[in-house]
Every structure is written in C-alpha cells, then in structure tokens.
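We modelled the chain as a single entity of 189 amino acids. Its sequence is:
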Amino acid sequence: MLGDAKLIYPKYSTGLWEKGAANLEQWQMQMIDDVIEKLDIQDGDRILDFGGGWGCVPNYILAKLPNVQFTGINLSYHQCEYMRLKMQDPGSYLSSGRFTLYEGDLNDAQFETKFDKILSLGVFCHVGHLTQAFQKLASFLKDKGRVFIHIITVRTLTNISSVFTHKYIFPHDRYWKYDVPPTTKTSKP
C-alpha cells in the first residue's frame, strides 16, 4: 500500500508509468487521470466508487473537479473508519460535503438516485458472484451511464500466491489470466 499525502491517501499499488511519472505519487496520480479520461468523468457527474479502498481515488478526483459528487461503497470497517476520519478533516476533499460513504455489502445497498459513472478498481478479483454484482451495479447506473472496472490479472496461474492469499485475499479464486478479460472500448455518444 502506498501514499500518505494530501491528494494520494494510502492506496494499493496501482499506477501508470507510461506517461513519464518521476515518482510513486505521480505514478498513482497518472493512473487516476487515466481513469478520469477513459471513464469520461465530467465536472458535475455523480460517481459511485465500488470498493473505495482508503478514499484515495475519490479524494483525488474531488480535488480536480469541484462539482463532482461521489459515493463510496466499501465492506471494510477499517477502510471506512479511515475515510470517516478524512471526512472530518478540513484538509481532505472527502470533507467537502460532496462525498458520502456506504459501509456494507453491495447486495444490500440501495440509493435514492442513479449515477452517471461507476468505477471499481481492483475489487472484482474479490467478488464471488460476478453476474449478481454486475446486475446490481447496472441497477445504479443512469441510462447512457458509463462503467470502468479494473481487475488484477496474472501471467501465470500456478504458484502465484500463498495459502494466506488464497484464503484471505482471493477467496473465490478469481485469478484472471492477463489475456482473458476483454478490453472494451466504446465510442462516446
């Protein structure tokens, strides 16, 4: 896990070197910028972050786009507790009044309004019932809304992790071979 700065909170190590990042913070910021571009996030969008981690991605996007509204959904008490503290910290963009947090299971979540965009970074590797999760997320999306899902893949499916990892990190054995998940590029409406 990396990061402990104003914009980049603790975040699992996902980044993008291809655009010339000079350090780990830039590496992570460029990855989030890439998500903003690919998801076509516009100022004023309502965004659902499925997984949410430690709140790094919403914090960074809220800093860049002053009219975005974010909702994070997360199962982890410890991550939610961290975000709740940041929501009380005037130096955090999570305290802007534009971020709400739902602590609980995706299957139990219900929201009053639909979202323009949904993003999920590194979470679907941990989801047991993919079809059910996709259907639930689709029910939260506005017509013509967009979804960005980032998954963790591996090049070799054998001997890639410990018993601990199988039991606690990837309990549903969701190891996707790097060339199996489709990459879907859609044109903008």
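As a brief sanity check on the tokenised model: The mean pLDDT is 81. The first strand starts at residue 46 and ends at 50.
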